[in-house]
Amino acid sequence: MGSIQVRGTRDRSRVYLSFRVGTKADGSAAYVMRRFRGLLNRAEGKKELARIETAISRGEPWEPSKVPQDDVGDLLDRWADTLKNRGAYEDRLIIRRDLVPRFRGLKIDQLTVRTALKWLEELGATTMAPQTQRHRFTLLSRFFGWAIESELTDTNPCLMVPRGRRPSARRQKDIAWLDDDGMIPAIMEGLGSSLGLVYYLARFSGMREGEAAGLRMSDLEWLGEGLIRVRYSFNGELKESRNGSKPVKWSPAPVDVLDVLGLHVKRRKLQGAKEEDLVFPYIRPEKRRGRTRTSSWKDWPGWHPKEIRSMWRDVANQLGLPKALTFYGASRHTFTTKALKAGASLDEVSAALGHADPTTTKRYYDHLIRRNFAPILRQGLSAISSTPTAGTEADAQSERTG
Fold first, then answer.
1. What is the tens place of the pLDDT at every residue in 71-88?
2. By C-alpha distance, which of 220, 219, 222, 225 is closest to 238?
């Protein structure tokens, strides 16, 4: 008589069957214990066990017929359709452009650690940036996570790749920043009335460009208190969001924010903007061709990151700014660099940036942390040479009492 074991959770159960298949050479019973995919509960396990024991008693093959495996390319396509993360649209493009052609023709059990290592060697031989390579490697690992949940495989070969062989995504610490604040008015004028104000907030509040571009009218209700509420990045959740957590951050409002934004906010209200309408809707510049948006960006009335980068490069070229200076470098990175150089405390800057912990800020800006210390912290023996020691004071008292 065989036995049944059900492991896992109710919605992700794993059914194992144990049964006798014959006799060993020494005369003892030979048993097999195996997990049977597709069985969801004990009742289904009983039916399958009965079928197996009947087949064995008749001397017939008891192994269930193997279901042909799908092509990995087709599985990647199926997985891509299920993505709902913040960067799902871009991830689907990469999957279908890079991963599907590379792994089409393989079955999932043929995509082994050796295959993954060979693919990483191919990527390493290209001019692709390490961060970009790592993103593709992470996508493949996420695919295997989905395949395991779908009971298409038991293992994730990406997790078995040695860490030293995985692409390393190290962020630059020497990002270009804008030292001359005198250029800011010209930059704002060149970017236009809407995007110029997005830059203003990103530069003087430390927001990411998507956070400034994703502000809603109700997020400005705390300007009088010196605060700006941040809930969105462009048309999606914040970068810090995990599993739909929808976090809320607070950024410092510049001291002149009411003067700079006042007229724009009044104009938006006259246009009928409600609490959850964008503060900075997209305004197509004159003599500039706009691109047709697709997917999740199709109905987005705000600025697209590619449009921001394109506008920034045009303005930067007109003003003769360094080619290495990006919108991010001239706004959020400049905000952080100047604040730390001026001696602002690490925890305050970290809170303004929305980092979960000051160590995150320190990791990228440790070379800017204040290194000048007040004289009171640098006292040496020379500062106390004229001060009597405890022993000397005791001796002096003894002499006075004596």
1. 999 999 999 999 987 778
2. 219
pLDDT score, position 172: 60
Is 88 exposed, middle or buried (CB count within 10 Å of its CB: 0-12, 13-18, 19+)?
A: middle
Angle between helices 72-82 and 130-149 (to 10 degrees): 90
Q: Are residues 53 and 76 in the same domain?
A: no
Compute the Cα dihedral for 265, 271, 277, 282 and give only its sign. Answer: negative
pTM: 0.66
**What's the CA gap between 107 and 134, in Å, rounded?**
23
> Residue 34 corresponds to which tokens in the numbers above?
């195996």
In a domain, 397, yes or no: no
Q: Specify the pLDDT at position 173.
A: 60
Q: Report strand pairing: 13-23 vs 3-8.
A: antiparallel
Structural domain range at position 314: 185-333
> What's the token pair of residue 55?
């087949």
State the CATH number of the domain containing residue 157: 1.10.150
Q: Which residue has the tokens 């692409």?
A: 167
Alpha helices in 236-331 (DSSP H): 257-270, 305-319, 327-330
